[in-house]
Amino acid sequence: MATFSEIKTKVQRRIIDLPTAITTETGDLVNWAMETLQDEHNFWVMQAETAVTSTSLATRDLMVLPSNFKSPRGKPYEIWNDGNTQDLNWGANREAVYDLFTHSDANDKGPPEVLLISEPDDESGTANIEVYPYPDGNSDYVDGEYRIVIPYWKWLTALSGDSDQNWFTNNAEHYLVAKATARGFALNWDEERMAVWEQLAAGELRKVLKKDKRRSMGFVTHLIVRKGARGPKIGR
Q1: Closest CA to 172 of 139, 135, 212
Q2: Residue 31 has pLDDT above 80, yes or no
């Protein structure tokens, strides 16, 4: 259970030869290692969801894509006023969605069926989540608008303060140290030591993945057959 400062100190101890580039970028090396870990696998701690409290009549854009969004996590769903839910689908791409719905005809409207992540803006890099067809304002809520929940995998916030901690600093400390050390040796043009630490990091990665899988399955005692993702269970 190490802090950001403790991990940076351990990395520097292992590299030993510490030119300005290393001392200045040690924090970046640790965060790069953490990002690499998240890129490798969707960890339990990376689960997130965002809720759209109300669609807008005949409006395509549902919301701005969360800044920490990595990828969709299962299906989004609509929550009805009576407490029931209805699964929605992700559009594979714009062409596939346009095979089912019109591009801009606001008369092509109805309850939400498909969500699509738009192309990012060239300057800001932001993207929107779009809803198809256009919302018709006929939900069972008083305002007629729909409530949608979007589960997704998120990127954890980068470490910055010396006392910062998260699931990775507490459970993947050895990987972060080894991976950041390997990159530090790369900055020092020491490919031989870099290869040694990359091998050590690979071994630590396997341990972290096993730990996460045990965490993810820790609540499961037996399997229950269900019809659909949120369907009633079959059997006892």
Answers
A1: 212
A2: yes
> Are the beta carbons of 147 and 50 closer than 8 angstroms?
no
Rounded distance between C-alpha atoms, residue 22 and residue 189, angstroms:
12
Would you tell me how many other CB atoms lie within 10 Å of the CB of residue 139? 20
Backbone angles phi, psi at 205, to 5 degrees: -60, -45
Neighbours of 131 (CB within 10 A): 26
SS3 content of the chain, % helix, strand, coil (to 5): 35, 20, 45
Whole-angstrom Cα distance, residue 57 to residue 226? 34
Q: How many residues does the chain have?
A: 236
SS3 category, 109:
strand
pLDDT digits (tens, 9 = 90+) for 95-118: 999 999 998 898 999 999 999 999
Gap between the Cα atoms of 11 and 29, Å rounded: 9
What number is the average pLDDT over the span 150-174? 97
The C-alpha atoms of residue 180 and residue 12 are separated, in whole angstroms, by: 9
